[in-house]
Amino acid sequence: MTPLAADAALAQPAVERPSSRPVRVDLLNDLGLTLETVLSDDDSFLTLLCRDDADRRVVLKYVHSGSADAHRRLRNEAALVKHLRGRPPLRFLEHRRDGPGFLVTGFDSGVLLYPDAFEPEVAATVGTALAVFQSLAPPLGEIGVVDREHVATYYLKVLVKNLLHLWPAYLTTSEAARCVAIVTAALPAICRRSVVCHGDFLPTNLLYHREDRSVTITDLEGFMSSNHPLFDVLAFFSISSVDLMDWSWQRAFLAEYLPAAAAFSGIDSESEEYGEAYRGLLVFYLVYRLNEERIALTAGSYFDGLGKRRFVARKAARLALGHRDAWQDDGGIRAALQVRQSNLRRALSETQYLEHFRSLHAAFHP
């Protein structure tokens, strides 16, 4: 990407997203806020751009579901925004106010990043910012941050959930079993090295400031107090929709991230442990991204909106009756997912995976 094209990509404003649910006017009135626009609307949270009583732009995020876990996640985010302090090039949102089920932060003027729409220089800055973030050691117990589950439980639960959706339309039985085998075998290496993790480290959760090359990290509700350093790295890398062998800005990221991360976590890209963790996390995320994009393209939802057991029972019954076509997406969707499907199969192949790994890490393994 040319510098001019990169500037144009970075100049894109945050996309206004229409809300499918009514805004809580009572909460706005209680907080003395005036709504400007809806920034995001997902299964658990509504995020609004507002003006406060001093006519300053602020962001209100609140839980709109009855989910106890959503409340836990937002309490974690409020505690972190309130207590974490960044250092260059890392920034955090300014805490303004929080309470049961809501958080108000200052508006950040940084430019929202988009997957594959930024130049290597930006990726390098993000790599440094992530290293700074992961080196933080906040008193999590004292400020009330609570994890949902053990990290190994998380990996297996999320992996199996996504495989249940992808098999047999996008993965054969042997490929699905290989995914489980690779991730399971990597868990000892993954669990052996631990840092704080953002939990949803995506370009769209980052705001870039070109004037001082700094990065504001947002959306901390997925925070994990203990996970492998590469968890956030592969989350960031795998959002890319290009072939694994064409990953480019990822190299610029690693050039800044790995030396800094080695200093506080002891991570060594030449070690066997690193290679095991990298491959396990790569497969985990490629499965996740493939199903995530499939759901977005089909306008679907996890488990088709059914309970987990009912979904599995229905799928098993249909497959037993030979209704395999019931799990096939149309040709346009399958074509749109071809690169992601190919990337996952590349990661499952010993020779193709090693080709990718060596290409990405060539600067560190001459």
Give a structural overview:
This protein is of the alpha+beta class. It has a single domain (1-12, 110-366), classed as Aminoglycoside 3'-phosphotransferase, Chain: A, domain 2, CATH 3.90.1200. Helix content is 49%, strand content 14%. It is built from 14 helices and eleven strands. It has helices at 3-10, 25-31, 68-83, 120-135, 140-143, 151-166, 173-192, 230-238, 249-265, 272-298, 308-320, 331-336, 338-348, 350-360, and strands spanning 34-41, 45-51, 57-63, 90-92, 95-99, 102-106, 111-112, 195-197, 206-209, 214-217, 224-227. The chain has a five-stranded antiparallel beta sheet, with helices on one face. A hairpin with a 3-residue loop joins strand 1 (34-41) and strand 2 (45-51). Helix 4 (120-135) packs parallel to helix 9 (249-265), helix 6 (151-166) packs antiparallel against helix 7 and helix 10 runs antiparallel to helix 13. The radius of gyration is 21 Å and the shape is globular. The model is unreliable at 1-17 (pLDDT under 50).
